[in-house]
Design goal:
Mean pLDDT: 86
Structural class: alpha/beta
Order of helices and strands: HEEEEHEHEHEHEH
Largest sheet: 6 strands, parallel
Helix content: 40-55%
Strand order of the largest sheet: 1-8-7-2-5-6
Strand content: 5-15%
Distance between the termini: 79 Å
Oligomer: single chain
Radius of gyration: 22 Å
């Protein structure tokens, strides 16, 4: 009887210890996530150049365009019915505008062409061609399956050293962080023209993705696909299907 009472008394104590340990682990995890996010955002915040929400052509600060950049890197953001999603359309519009202003002589479209019937980069290239950009100045990275893969393949496959990265502001921190840790001399042009739907989910996902890519970059993870070198200074039509 005495042993039974002792076992009953031990159970609440064990449960309390488990709850305390679980709470401590959760708190440590939350602090780690916040700390890594702060590191990512603060380390590259001065490299982002935003666009006014009222005027697409008016920039809030002047990028150092006296520097020579080798390409404008437009990161994929998905298709809807085989046309650019609203986020991707804004990225493409800004990338095309930067090209037309002479900021860089080439555009590198990086996105997902990992399955039949879904060719994100071809749609991106055609959009730029329809806007008047010569096909020969547009390269396609068919295996830009993630932000990290887009950046490391830009460096290793296309020989890019100084890209102008085009994406939305929330995503730009991670892209620039990866780029800088890959020793790319990159800056970013933000395309936040208006609020997009699903911001809460997107922000949560980005918090986790930043933590993941801190370790991905540190480890030096290999991209899904390698390939023969393709010089970004050449003819972009060599990347056509």
């Amino acid at each position: 009887m005495k042993q039974t009472r002792e076992k009953k008394n031990k159970f609440p104590k064990l449960l309390k210890r488990l709850l305390i340990a679980g709470g401590a682990i959760t708190l440590l995890g939350a602090v780690s996530v916040l700390g890594l996010n702060l590191w990512v955002t603060s380390s590259v915040s001065d490299l982002i150049y935003e666009v006014s929400s009222e005027n697409r052509e008016e920039q809030s600060s002047e990028p150092p365009f006296n520097q020579v950049y080798d390409c404008i890197l437009v990161l994929g953001a998905g298709l809807r019915d085989n046309t650019p999603s609203p986020m991707l359309k804004d990225r493409l519009d800004k990338g095309i505008a930067c090209y037309q202003q002479g900021i860089a002589p080439k555009i590198l479209m990086s996105g997902d062409h990992g399955r039949d019937g879904y060719n994100e980069v071809q749609v991106m290239k055609q959009y730029a061609i329809d806007a008047g950009v010569p096909s020969s100045d547009i390269f396609m990275d068919h295996a830009g399956f993630s932000t990290y893969e887009s950046l490391i393949r830009a460096r290793d496959i296309f020989g890019v050293n100084s890209p102008v990265i085009i994406t939305q502001n929330y995503h730009m921190y991670r892209a620039l962080f990866i780029g800088r840790h890959l020793e790319l001399d990159c800056i970013g042009i933000s395309t936040d023209y208006f609020p997009y739907g699903g911001n809460a989910y997107r922000t949560f996902r980005e918090y986790i993705a930043r933590c993941k890519d801190v370790f991905t970059t540190m480890i030096g993870t290999k991209p899904t696909y390698g390939g023969d070198p393709i010089s970004i200074s050449g003819n972009g039509d060599v990347t056509n299907d």
